[in-house]
């Protein structure tokens, strides 16, 4: 049995310890905000936080999160919308919307690492794929969230 | 494909009382004067929304969105049309996705219950513009009449403000919720009420955010992959990787031993040469979870017959295209003037060939579908662009009455034309029939890249004659490609080789001598429509070639193209987006993009600007792309776009679709291709099919809309075709290197 927490609640997984965290979240726990896109850690649609850091759940065997705290998109805004979620709404980022939960989870981690990101930081760290091409607004939303978190955005182009 | 496509376009409204005394208003296209359907599915159960407008006694307004939402924004923009004429406060409107609605009359004819439903060809806004505004205006008139009756005043003395009817003379006001029950009992007006003049719009033409924005950012929005029914099981399919290959043997002993595996089901492949139902032979593993099904799949031991195309390769197809163009004349698509004589008398001529590869749709949500087949009916829930096609497919496979087949459209995690076909609905149905429980079918990324209706690749050979004034006097364009109509449902055998040149595209009527030829290539690859289908390939060839001609005569590419387009004129246009092609509107977007990009101003060494424009699906789009090539490495710095789509119902989402066209166009041009080797697709995932990332996206993207006053047209497709040629034209301007083949990665390094 593998024990961990999801969005603050204790969870015990009794099935295959190799099962990717993605499918445990989706099929067993019904947390479908985390999406499946590639199964190989390439697109980031399944991005969650494990102990606060972004992780691609489709290539994360559930046994590797034993004892750790998993946060999904459903848990991110549990106490009211997170500033990154608010920025995503304000910039009206979503088109089909399928990748956006993963984009948001990745952006939260990006701003944790670099609270004051430059264009180059965003290009280096925001590697989630969007098939609709919302990148212009993803970039703007990250700058907006950075500003909202009380920091001044870097000069564009500076890295 | 629409059931109702051939019915008269007579508008027809239906009215009903909601539970609790509200107003429900629907609209439909009836079958030949038949007012009462003998039966239907998708009608509103008591108290739930399936009609377009519902007003509750407390004033809450719910508007139904009939079309599938796949990112193009119709779930926001279509209800805006109704809300405008209904005159309500947009902030108080709730939008609900409508299920598919169809009905049958007493003579057995099928038709749409509400309006035609389906998303494809950028048609939703154009086809909804009139009827949805009329639906809103009719509801407003009924509410106003109810107030007139209540107050015993002439309806002409009343007006509305958002959400209420007001009587200025009597200083009285009633909210729509207080009038809804009475309004629902009134007879419908015999003619549609007058509509607002554009100057009176409060909602149309104003930027509005995605109605589902909060659901999307919190993970609550429901996609096909999120659908659930009680008692459902999960299925994945191991499909034959060879085109039209067959199952020889399967040893499923180990798979059946995997914990959670419930059953193994065989899927018969498509009959060679026949229209596709499913795309491939397969072995389905049904299990208690997606992961158990996947583990079972990995334990299968299968031998495949490699089928009739096991020797096909992309290199071979390319060679056959070259041989065909060299060897003979093609099927004549258009022949105007005397091209041969014009070339003989020309002072100069230019010839160039352009190549585009097969590409995949790669919707980020892989194909999936939830299907339950019961004795008395079926339920289909999934990411579906064409719900009636899904309904017909389930009927074809099960024999169930179509009025017992419920089709629910979730949000789609991307469409791009992939979900115009319903092969994945067919697969889920075939499995559900056998296991007799709701089946959730899930494809993985490899399944999706290996089994698609690919955008055909093609080789184009262009030749132009120039006179001593630098004008184009003759144009010959020859395309060798495998037609996208191959094995399409409902297409006759001879239609499967139909040309993918659109004869009314420029330079028709701009050049006196014009000849278009098509060479239909044989290929076993399934083909289909991919966002602005052949327009992407054709605009790449034509807009690159015009740039080459301009440089040949030492002309500025913008001025050369404007001169070619000439004075503003309207020409008949019979293909997508007609019936009119207006040269002035194309010139207009070229000029606007150029002006905003400061076209003609000096650029540093190693940098360059390119321009291209195109008309399709009723929209005119042009881009100026700026690039820098440093140490042989390309970086796209800036894209400036101009679009004329007529009136922009929601300018925010029109601009979003331009951004989408820019990034999708760039992503596809930079690195994307599907190749075939020994009858198998070689790309497995996003490492070998590398979608563009944020790092590829130009830091500066500017979009401008032409305020043309024309009726609105759709914007899902027009913004993609001109991007690739504007990019390669910019690379030429920066470096002198002319790239005539996509993807670019074969010809230039990327920074």
UniProtKB/TrEMBL annotation, chain A:
Family annotation (Pfam families): Fer2, Fer2_2
Annotated 2Fe-2S ferredoxin-type domain residues: 1-76
GO molecular function list: 2 iron, 2 sulfur cluster binding; metal ion binding; oxidoreductase activity
Gene3D superfamilies hit by this protein: 3.10.20.30, [2Fe-2S]-binding domain
Keywords, sorted A to Z: 2Fe-2S, Iron, Iron-sulfur, Metal-binding, Oxidoreductase
Matches recorded under InterPro entries: 2Fe-2S-bd, 2Fe-2S-bd_dom_sf, 2Fe-2S_ferredoxin-like_sf, 2Fe-2S_ferredoxin-type, 2Fe2S_fd_BS, Beta-grasp_dom_sf, Diverse_Oxidoreductases
Keyword Transferase: no
Name of the protein this chain belongs to: (2Fe-2S)-binding protein
Biological source species: Parahaliea mediterranea
Automatic annotation (TrEMBL), chain B:
Top-level lineage group: Bacteria
Pfam family, one: MoCoBD_2
Domain Aldehyde oxidase/xanthine dehydrogenase a/b hammerhead, chain residue ranges per copy: 218-308
InterPro entries with a match to the protein in the record: Ald_Oxase/Xan_DH_a/b (IPR000674), AldOxase/xan_DH_MoCoBD1 (IPR008274), AldOxase/xan_DH_MoCoBD2 (IPR046867), AldOxase/xan_DH_Mopterin-bd_sf (IPR037165), N-heterocyclic_Hydroxylase (IPR052516), OxRdtase_Mopterin-bd_su_IorB (IPR012368), TAT_signal (IPR006311)
GO MF term set: oxidoreductase activity
Transmembrane segments: none
PANTHER family, sorted: ALDEHYDE DEHYDROGENASE (PTHR47495:SF2)
Record's protein name: Xanthine dehydrogenase family protein molybdopterin-binding subunit
UniProt organism field: Parahaliea mediterranea
């Amino acid at each position: 049995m593998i024990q961990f927490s999801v969005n603050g609640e204790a969870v015990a997984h009794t099935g295959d310890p190799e099962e990717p965290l993605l499918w445990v979240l989706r099929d067993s726990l019904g947390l479908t905000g985390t999406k499946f896109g590639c199964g190989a850690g390439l697109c980031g649609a399944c991005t969650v936080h494990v102990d606060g850091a972004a992780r691609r759940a489709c290539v994360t065997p559930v046994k590797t999160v034993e004892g750790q705290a998993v946060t999904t998109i459903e848990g991110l805004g549990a106490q009211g919308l997170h500033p990154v979620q608010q920025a995503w709404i304000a910039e009206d980022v979503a088109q089909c919307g399928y990748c956006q939960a993963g984009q948001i989870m990745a952006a939260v981690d990006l701003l944790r690492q670099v609270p004051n990101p430059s264009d180059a930081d965003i290009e280096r760290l925001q590697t989630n794929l969007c098939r609709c091409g919302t990148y212009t607004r993803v970039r703007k939303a990250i700058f907006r969230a950075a500003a909202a978190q009380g920091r001044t955005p870097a000069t564009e182009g500076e890295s | 494909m629409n059931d109702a496509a051939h019915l008269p376009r007579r508008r027809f409204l239906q009215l009903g009382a909601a539970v609790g005394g509200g107003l429900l208003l629907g609209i439909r296209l009836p079958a030949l004067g038949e007012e009462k359907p003998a039966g239907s599915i998708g009608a509103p159960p008591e108290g739930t929304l399936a009609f377009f407008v519902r007003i509750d006694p407390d004033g809450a307004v719910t508007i139904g969105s009939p079309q599938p939402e796949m990112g193009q924004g119709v779930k926001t923009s279509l209800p805006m049309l109704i809300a405008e004429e209904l005159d309500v406060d947009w902030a108080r409107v709730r939008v609900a996705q409508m299920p598919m609605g169809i009905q049958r009359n007493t003579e057995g004819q099928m038709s749409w219950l509400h309006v035609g439903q389906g998303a494809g060809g950028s048609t939703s806004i154009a086809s909804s513009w009139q009827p949805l505004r009329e639906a809103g205006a009719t509801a407003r008139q009924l509410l106003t009449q109810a107030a007139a009756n209540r107050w015993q005043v002439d309806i002409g003395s009343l007006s509305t403000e958002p959400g209420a009817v007001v009587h200025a003379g009597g200083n009285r006001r009633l909210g729509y919720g207080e009038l809804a029950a009475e309004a629902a009992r009134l007879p419908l007006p015999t003619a549609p009420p007058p509509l607002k003049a554009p100057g009176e719009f409060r909602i149309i033409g104003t930027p509005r955010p995605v109605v589902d924005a909060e659901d999307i950012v919190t993970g609550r929005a429901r996609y096909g992959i999120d659908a659930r029914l009680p008692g459902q099981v999960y299925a994945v399919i191991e499909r034959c990787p060879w085109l039209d290959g067959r199952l020889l043997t399967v040893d499923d002993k180990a798979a059946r031993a995997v914990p959670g595996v419930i059953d193994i089901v065989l899927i018969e492949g498509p009959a060679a040469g026949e229209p596709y139902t499913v795309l491939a032979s397969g072995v389905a593993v049904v299990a208690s979870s997606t992961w158990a099904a996947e583990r079972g799949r990995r334990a299968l031991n299968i031998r495949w017959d490699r089928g009739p195309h096991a020797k096909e390769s992309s290199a071979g197809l390319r060679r056959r295209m070259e041989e065909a163009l060299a060897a003979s004349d093609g099927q004549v698509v258009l022949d105007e003037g005397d091209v041969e004589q014009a070339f003989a008398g020309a002072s100069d001529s230019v010839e160039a060939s352009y190549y585009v590869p097969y590409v995949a749709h790669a919707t980020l949500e892989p194909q999936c579908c939830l299907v339950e087949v019961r004795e008395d009916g079926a339920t289909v829930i999934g990411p579906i662009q064409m719900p009636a096609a899904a309904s017909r497919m389930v009927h074809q496979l099960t024999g169930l009455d179509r009025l017992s087949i419920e089709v629910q459209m979730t949000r789609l995690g991307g469409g791009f034309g992939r979900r115009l076909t319903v092969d994945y609905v067919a697969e889920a149905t075939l499995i559900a029939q056998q296991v007799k429980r709701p089946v959730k079918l899930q494809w993985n990324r490899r399944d999706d890249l290996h089994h698609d209706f690919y955008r055909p690749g093609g080789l184009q050979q262009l030749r132009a004659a120039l006179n001593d004034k630098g004008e184009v006097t003759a144009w010959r364009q020859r395309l060798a490609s495998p037609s996208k109509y191959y094995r399409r449902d409902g297409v006759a055998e001879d239609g499967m080789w139909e040309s993918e040149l659109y004869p009314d595209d420029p330079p028709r009527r701009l050049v006196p001598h014009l000849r278009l030829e098509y060479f239909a290539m044989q290929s076993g690859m399934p083909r289909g429509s991919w966002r602005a289908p052949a327009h992407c390939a054709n605009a790449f060839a034509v807009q690159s070639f015009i740039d080459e001609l301009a440089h040949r005569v030492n002309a500025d590419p913008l001025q050369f193209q404007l001169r070619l387009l000439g004075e503003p004129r309207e020409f008949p246009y019979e293909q997508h987006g007609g019936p009119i092609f207006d040269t002035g509107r194309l010139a207009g977007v070229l000029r606007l993009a150029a002006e905003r990009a400061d076209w003609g101003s000096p650029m540093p060494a190693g940098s360059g600007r390119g321009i291209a424009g195109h008309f399709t699906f009723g929209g005119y789009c042009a881009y100026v792309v700026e690039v820098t090539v440093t140490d042989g490495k390309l970086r796209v710095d800036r894209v400036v776009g101009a679009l004329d789509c007529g009136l922009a119902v929601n300018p925010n989402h029109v601009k979003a679709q331009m951004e989408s066209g820019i990034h999708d166009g760039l992503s596809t041009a930079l690195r994307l291709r599907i190749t075939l080797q020994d009858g198998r697709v070689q790309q497995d995932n996003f490492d070998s099919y590398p979608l563009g990332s944020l790092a590829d996206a130009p830091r500066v993207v500017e979009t401008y809309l032409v305020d043309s006053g024309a009726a609105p047209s759709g914007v899902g497709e027009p913004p993609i075709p001109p991007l690739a040629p504007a990019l390669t034209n910019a690379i030429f301007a920066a470096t002198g290197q002319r790239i005539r083949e996509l993807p670019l990665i074969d010809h230039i390094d990327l920074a």
